[in-house]
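Troubleshooting: if your tokenizer reports a length mismatch, compare against these two reference records.
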Amino acid sequence: MDRAHFSEFEVIPAVDVQDGEVVQLVAGERGTGKRYGDPVEAAARWTDAGARTLHLVDLDGAFEGERANADAIGAVIDAVGDGIGLQLGGGIRTADDAHSLLDTGIDRVILGTAAVENPEIVATIDDTHPGSVVVSLDAKEGEVVVSGWTEGTGLDPAEAAARYEGLGAGAILFTNVDVEGQLEGIDREAVESVVEAVDVPVIASGGVASVDDVVALKEAGAAAVVVGTALYEGEFTLREAQAAADEA
């Protein structure tokens, strides 16, 4: 099975976990998060609203370099059961970590820092779990950043996306950190440049403030969009966003 394939455009709710609670950061800055309660309750809310996939992030893991919310994430996996796609990032640094997660209910693992520091990890995981690796390219001011969005790499997002596709990435998660969590809109051109660089699906993230933003990302060629703050703040419903995308 090609785990990273999207048969049609998806709106994917984010369940970002910090200290065991759902948190949405502003511009990727630690300490800026607004809390939205229990991850299991959030996951149930989104699956009840029609989500086909959930985007899970261990925020503490992203900053500290090792998974810190395994219990909370595990509870979400157990609660949603089969039939819902699950992609997880944050603190996954080794192939063994990834293999373990993929064998226990996660469909796709999201690698950011690990993929930058050790590109061959993508091929290693893909060998045993084809299509399961999503490489996360987080961009600030046009540059890929790692280690919880704190360190620049000098990499251009589009060039990096093509490189990781060649190593076996099943999809690219492109997050524009400059607009993350601010409800001020997306940077469509940045997404288009990454989409044009690869043939694998591109999952867009960052800045979605309206249903129009969702539609624009579909029109830009993204295969899916991850939405966090806008959904939690009630700017629009998941059903509204998915319906608008389906009609576009």
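Reference record two:
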Amino acid sequence: MKTKISLLFYLKKPKNYQKGPVPIYLRITVESKRAEFTTGRECEPSRWNAIAGRVTGAKEAVKSVNAYLGNLEQQLLDAHAALVRNGALITAETIKNKYLGVGPKQRLLMTVIADHNERMKALIG
């Protein structure tokens, strides 16, 4: 099943914004459901191209930020492709979690056995 995925980089100004760089955020949209997180990079609002979702300029720092954003976009598309290959449910949150490395908590065998024994003790009395 094909799912349409949309990635958008945008600036998020704080409520008490004065002047200076603001954080660059990434929004993942899958079937009108959104998930967003910060990229860890900042940009001056006057240098931001909202249509392209990139920083404008020719300096080395600008090229570095744009390369990072392009790499981040590719990693998210790779995470989406991995979820499709595994047959997992594709949502904005699952793509975000796959990229961030957040997954279901693994339970060790000894903890499962201990939990089982505690429940059996409770049943016996």
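Descriptive notes for reference record two:
- The CA atoms of residues 68 and 108 lie 37 Å apart.
- The first strand starts at residue 5 and ends at 11.
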